[in-house]
Design goal:
Elements lengths: L4 E4 L9 H7 L7 E8 L1 E11 L5 E13 L8 E3 L1 H11 L1 H5 L4 E3 L13 E11 L2 E8 L4 H11 L5 E8 L1 E6 L2 E6 L4 E8 L5 H14 L4 E2 L2 E2 L2 H16 L3
Helix pairs in contact: 4-6
Length: 244
């Protein structure tokens, strides 16, 4: 419990439309972008078979793990009440998840908008057990960032999971230190895959290797279109990791 409330950030009673925020990055008046990063504790990693748009089946990678915890102070000095904040937020995003509309990025951006050129995975399930939020994500290996994320998992490189949401906070003092309590009305936007300090060098090495392998993609009468370029980048990433 956080005693001695010292001050409060702006509080909004506006309803939160997650889809509008994800599409435009526009945050409701009185709210702010709240990001928190955790070490992604992978509980299950398995190859699955999904149906592509042409009706054919193809392999995909799906990972399950701990996404967030409530009722404790995190590394950013924030506390999410499991019952009053996390539970409603998890419930409110279920429809978008079942519609396969909650995409995550490879490295979180500075805003709330989902940037399609950075998408690496799709959130397929979110649920709570006690004060903990668990999730499942399907790695979109046909996208450049998804192929790179799959390579990290295949090589057992530890990554972080970063929640992106919008809401209000209040400032409290406990033991002479400031802490922040996230208020009810908070809404998740998505969860991104990010590097932890312990693996940042590995990420840089991967990027350096790709930069070395990828030459300027040009042809005699112009530049490759986006689809061809994307397919070639995915192929190079898979070659780098030794994946099919």
């Amino acid at each position: 419990m956080l005693p001695k409330i010292r001050g409060k950030l702006t509080i909004s009673e506006n309803s939160v439309n997650r889809r509008v925020i994800a599409e435009t990055g526009t945050i409701p008046s009185g709210m702010q972008l709240i990001r928190d990063t955790f070490a992604f504790q992978v509980l299950d990693k398995k190859d699955i078979v999904v149906e592509s748009k042409n009706g054919q089946e193809e392999p995909a990678l799906r990972v399950t793990g701990l996404f967030q915890e409530g009722d404790i102070e995190n590394a950013n000095g924030r506390v999410y009440d499991a019952r009053e904040v996390l539970a409603p937020a998890v419930q409110s995003i279920q429809e978008d998840i079942s519609s396969r509309a909650v995409m995550g990025e490879y490295d979180h951006p500075a805003d709330a908008k989902i940037h399609l050129d950075r998408v690496s995975h799709l959130i397929t399930k979110i649920w709570m057990e006690g004060r903990k939020v668990y999730g499942e994500a399907e790695v979109l290996h046909r996208l450049p960032c998804g192929a790179c994320l799959r390579g990290l998992f295949e090589h057992n490189i530890r990554v972080g999971i970063s929640s992106r949401g919008v809401g209000d906070m209040e400032v409290a003092e406990s033991g002479g230190q400031e802490k922040y309590r996230v208020l009810p009305g908070y809404s998740f936007v998505t969860w991104d895959a990010v590097a932890e300090p312990s693996v940042s060098n590995a990420i840089l090495n991967i990027r350096e290797g790709l930069d070395h392998q990828l030459k300027p993609l040009k042809k005699s009468r112009g530049i490759f279109d986006q689809k061809i370029y994307q397919d070639m980048v995915v192929e190079e990433i898979n070659k780098y990791f030794g994946l099919k």
